[in-house]
């Protein structure tokens, strides 16, 4: 019996069907390709930053044994506990002592390549533990920027040769730089740290949170719970939606024209930066807050009203506590965006070189993204690694904040 | 005078008022015949606390604006200030230095003239600090005790507190309008100052951009303020190159995630895409300048181009496109998901393959939403600053070659305002005019996009 073939399944039909299935497959692969491309770019970005950044957490150090027993520096505990202790040690000739032992260990050429501020680290160690003044101690002191780049294989041949000689003697090496997290900006990549910028970021974020969170939550409550539907509330709504989409640099222009006009003395202070970023963050908090408040079921409000609560009590005793996890998620996301923001802060003058960590909301400061921007402009190759290391710290902070937001969302997600 | 200390003082006084009023309200409770008050004790407490804190906070806001000017006035009235130079700029520098030393922000003076002013500054600052603290205390005590004396067992504290709360809520929601107004007024004001010096026609239609911050401010050369190359650079980088990258990749990602991907994979891939949107733009800028731009330059060199620029429009545009992918994909995701399932099922039932259904049915039906998403993405791309500041150049260039250096509106705003120029110079003021154009354009794009989305959403309901 011959095989029964459906009259429609002609050869041309089969061919067309094959083409259509091939097109289907191609389309699907295209989609997969698109998403894989994005993921690969992200992975490439993170891996490049990590590879560069690992070097940024280290620095090139020279090994210098110092025998304090012969130095004649007096470690009187009463002078060392005072604020001028470092100056006191300088006056007693600590820098010269270090120089002497350095040239003994490294030779005159090597000693001249110790970073000029290295003795301060010894001084700090002495102040922390004056007992080492009666001992012989081996210090790992930062090399100069020139020697550090020579050790990496760049720079002029003479210094490179010196670096090789020192390496042969085992006197030079890359060590984990604990000070990177505790120092502030400097001109020498061997001496820089991010604590100054980190502290500036923290102070700025405190101001931003203190202004944007209450204002944002209260505005969301008003618009969602009490606002009458009229032209005024429409205007408020439209301006909040528009503000959420205004480019950040425009907020910088606003801060420059308004805040710096009101407070001309607080240029580049966390106070002004925080106020500028608060205006930018507030719409994000309002929008997410309104969604969270909308999600609270009306039966809760009705129940509270039915037992005699006033409208203000309904909102503050019942609606707000239930909506708070959702509001917090939105707030954390808004704060993460503010933490990574650079452009508005450049506008209001937070791009200055600040070598000491800020000690208050009104002292000059820089923030982490601006520090990254400033370092990225430096010509010295040592700064490339430092910049990547600072980026890693910034990304870690953002990761923690976003993780917290996701955790809160999952933990408090409710189906009513 | 640091406002922080005054604010802490105000909050402390408010807390004291709160505690005192609550104690008083409790004592009313025992006095009144039936042991009941018109309001709970905590409302009495809030009533007094609000009356203490709000006037003081208003005073502090005003005082931190006035006090520095009073300090400067009194220093200028000091005999030591008599021989200050009359030049405004120099005079300001000396005053700033003296203040920095007096407040401890700097260790020593650079100008010798400033030395004599340090002591008057110190005296004036501590004088006005005392006045500030005294006034804060006086105001808090005055208003707080007035409110405290009003408390009675039948005092309707709750109604008053709730009225104040409603007022605070209204004020909070007005901040958005005030901010919008502030942006608008400050930009318009500075833009008009700029247009007083340079004609708007030169600015909007000129093709040569080379402001000179050192040139004579009184008589600027209008032909150097032609912003067309900046507008072109912005559109070329943000709306053309970035969108060539972002639209296909974003759209295809959204289609794959909604139509094909296994739910388990989707749970991982979607957050991975969202991370791209959460990376700070300064990191993208660094990546573009350090990795992408040199790579493109090497590519151009090996393709036989002589002397390609190390800062190219292509590098900035490509990286910006990658940054924009998640915006396009999440908007496309939403609007494809909003297409009714019946339309999809109908197409599949007719024998169409999934890809045919997507191309012929889902995407056309979701098109308004996708277009709106693209417009939002463009407005974000043209307002983006750090990527272009770090990867594009500051040289204005009217060209269609993506390998050439180009500059954008945002780059020029940063360049003009971070220089050394004074605030009365047209080069500095041009930044505000550029900002105003940027503000209007992004606002227009967002407005249209939101309108489109709103209309489209109603179509299937």
TrEMBL record, chain A:
GO terms for biological process: phosphate ion transmembrane transport. Keywords: Cell membrane, Membrane, Transmembrane, Transmembrane helix, Transport. Coiled coil: none annotated. Pfam families: BPD_transp_1, DUF3333. GO terms for cellular component: plasma membrane. The keyword Acetylation does not apply. It is a multi-pass membrane protein. Residues 198-405 form the ABC transmembrane type-1 domain. It is found in: Cell inner membrane; Cell membrane. This is Phosphate transport system permease protein PstA. It comes from Altererythrobacter epoxidivorans.
């Amino acid at each position: 019996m011959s095989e029964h073939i459906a009259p429609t399944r002609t050869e041309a039909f089969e061919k067309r069907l094959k083409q259509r299935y091939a097109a289907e497959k191609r389309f699907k692969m295209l989609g997969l390709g698109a998403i894989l491309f994005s993921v690969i770019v992200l992975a490439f970005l993170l891996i490049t930053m990590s590879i560069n950044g690992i070097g940024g957490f280290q620095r090139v150090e020279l090994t210098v044994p110092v025998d304090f027993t012969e130095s004649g520096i007096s470690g009187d505990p009463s002078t060392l506990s005072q604020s001028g202790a470092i100056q006191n040690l300088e006056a007693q000739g600590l820098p010269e002592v270090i120089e002497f032992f350095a040239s003994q260990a490294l030779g005159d050429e090597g000693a001249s390549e110790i970073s000029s501020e290295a003795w301060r680290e010894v001084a700090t160690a002495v102040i922390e533990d004056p007992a080492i003044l009666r001992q012989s101690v081996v210090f790992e002191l930062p090399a100069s920027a020139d020697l550090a780049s020579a050790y990496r294989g760049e720079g002029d041949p003479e210094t490179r040769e010196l670096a090789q000689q020192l390496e042969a003697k085992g006197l030079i090496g890359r060590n984990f730089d604990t000070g990177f997290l505790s120092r502030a900006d400097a001109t020498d990549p061997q001496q820089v740290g991010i604590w100054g910028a980190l502290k500036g970021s923290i102070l700025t974020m405190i101001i931003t949170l203190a202004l944007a969170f209450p204002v944002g939550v209260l505005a969301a409550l008003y618009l969602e719970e009490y606002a009458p539907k009229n032209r005024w509330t429409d205007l408020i709504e439209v301006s909040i939606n528009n503000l959420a989409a205004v480019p950040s640099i425009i907020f910088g222009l606003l801060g420059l024209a308004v805040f710096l006009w009101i407070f001309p003395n607080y240029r580049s202070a966390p106070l002004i930066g925080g106020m500028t970023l608060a205006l930018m963050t507030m719409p994000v908090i309002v929008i997410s807050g309104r969604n969270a408040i909308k999600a609270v079921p009306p039966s809760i409000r009705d129940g509270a009203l039915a037992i005699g609560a006033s409208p203000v009590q309904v909102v503050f005793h019942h609606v707000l506590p239930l909506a708070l996890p959702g509001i917090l998620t939105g707030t954390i996301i808004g704060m993460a965006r503010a933490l990574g923001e650079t452009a508005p802060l450049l506008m209001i003058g937070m791009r200055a070189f600040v070598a000491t960590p800020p000690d208050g909301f009104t002292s000059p400061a820089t923030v982490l993204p601006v520090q990254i921007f400033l370092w990225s402009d430096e010509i010295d190759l040592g700064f490339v690694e430092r910049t990547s290391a600072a980026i890693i710290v910034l990304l870690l902070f953002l990761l923690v904040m976003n993780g917290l937001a996701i955790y809160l969302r999952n933990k408090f997600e409710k189906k009513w | 005078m640091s406002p922080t200390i005054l604010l802490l003082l105000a909050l402390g006084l408010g807390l004291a008022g709160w505690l005192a009023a609550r104690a008083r309200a409790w004592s009313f409770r025992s006095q009144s015949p039936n042991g009941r008050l018109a309001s709970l004790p905590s409302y009495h407490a809030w009533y007094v606390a609000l009356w203490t804190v709000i006037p003081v906070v208003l005073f502090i806001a005003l005082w931190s604006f006035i006090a520095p000017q009073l300090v400067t006035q009194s220093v200028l009235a000091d005999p030591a200030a008599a021989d200050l130079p009359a030049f405004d700029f120099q005079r300001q520098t000396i005053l700033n230095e003296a203040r920095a030393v007096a407040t401890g922000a700097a260790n020593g003076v650079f100008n010798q003239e400033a030395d004599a002013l340090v002591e008057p500054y110190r005296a004036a600052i501590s004088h006005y600090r005392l006045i500030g603290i005294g006034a804060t205390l006086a105001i808090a005590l005055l208003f707080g005790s007035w409110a405290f004396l009003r408390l009675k067992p039948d005092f309707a504290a709750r109604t008053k507190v709730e009225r104040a709360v409603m007022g605070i809520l209204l004020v909070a929601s007005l901040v958005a309008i005030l901010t919008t107004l502030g942006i608008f007024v400050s930009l318009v004001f500075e833009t008009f100052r700029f247009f007083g010096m340079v004609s708007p026609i030169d600015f909007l239609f000129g093709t040569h951009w080379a402001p000179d911050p050192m040139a004579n401010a009184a008589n600027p050369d209008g032909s150097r303020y032609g912003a067309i190359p900046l507008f072109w650079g912005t559109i070329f980088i943000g709306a053309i190159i970035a969108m060539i990258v972002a639209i296909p990749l974003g759209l295809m990602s959204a289609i794959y995630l909604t139509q094909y991907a296994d739910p388990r994979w989707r749970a991982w891939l979607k957050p991975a895409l969202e991370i791209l949107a959460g990376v700070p733009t300064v990191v993208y800028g660094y990546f573009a300048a350090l990795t992408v731009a040199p790579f493109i330059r090497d590519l151009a060199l090996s393709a036989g181009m002589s002397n390609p620029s190390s800062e190219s429009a292509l590098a900035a545009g490509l990286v910006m496109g990658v940054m924009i992918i998640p915006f396009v994909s999440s908007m496309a995701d939403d609007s494809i998901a909003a297409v009714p399932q019946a339309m999809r099922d109908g197409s599949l039932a007719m024998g169409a393959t999934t890809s045919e259904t997507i191309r012929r049915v889902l995407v056309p039906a979701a098109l308004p939403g996708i277009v709106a998403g693209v417009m939002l993405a463009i407005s974000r791309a043209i307002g983006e600053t750090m990527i272009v500041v770090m990867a594009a150049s500051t040289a204005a260039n009217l060209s269609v070659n993506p390998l050439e250096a180009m500059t954008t509106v945002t780059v020029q705003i940063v360049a003009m305002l971070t220089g050394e120029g004074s605030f009365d110079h047209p080069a500095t003021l041009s930044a505000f005019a550029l900002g105003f154009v940027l503000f209007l354009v992004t606002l227009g794009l967002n407005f249209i996009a939101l309108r489109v989305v709103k209309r489209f959403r109603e179509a299937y309901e």
